[in-house]
Amino acid sequence: MFDSFSSENQDHNLLKCMGVRQALGLPNIGYDALSPTIRSGLTGPRHTTSILSSSSAKKQWEQLEICPNGVAKNRLNAHKFVAKNRHFRLSVQDCAIIQGFPESWLFNGAVYMILGQVGNSVPPPMAYHVAKALLQTLI
């Protein structure tokens, strides 16, 4: 049986899991955590730029001091429109980073379409480990 947690199966060159604030390079506020589920526009209301998935996710985003509504096309636009509570406003690129995509990954389309792609994707680090486990199982 394949043991994905044994030390011989770990790729030590991959970045370890980190909190949202650390992943985005935000200042330390004394709290950081993994991201709540990123709701995609393809499974919820169409043409929305919100990634908010539930009331519990809303509380977690508030603790992280990140605004899950009004995701901007790019970081410049995100910084231009400050959230009412002054929390960090996300860009499409930020959502992709949270989901595990490298900063260099390019997406095309309207914001709600890109959020659909990001929110419905298998995170690249997870896809890597699944593919690696399959390869080792088949060899």
UniProtKB/TrEMBL annotation:
SUPFAM superfamilies on file: S-adenosyl-L-methionine-dependent methyltransferases (SSF53335)
Pfam family of the protein (one): DNA_methylase
Ligase as UniProt keyword: no
Source domain of life: Bacteria
Keywords on record: Methyltransferase, Restriction system, S-adenosyl-L-methionine, Transferase
Signal peptide: none
Keyword Aminoacyl-tRNA synthetase set for record: no
Molecular functions (GO terms): methyltransferase activity
GO biological process: DNA restriction-modification system; methylation
Name listed for the protein in its UniProt record: C-5 cytosine-specific DNA methylase( EC:2.1.1.73 )
Organism expressing this protein natively: Crocosphaera watsonii WH 8502
Lineage of source species: Bacteria, Bacillati, Cyanobacteriota, Cyanophyceae, Oscillatoriophycideae
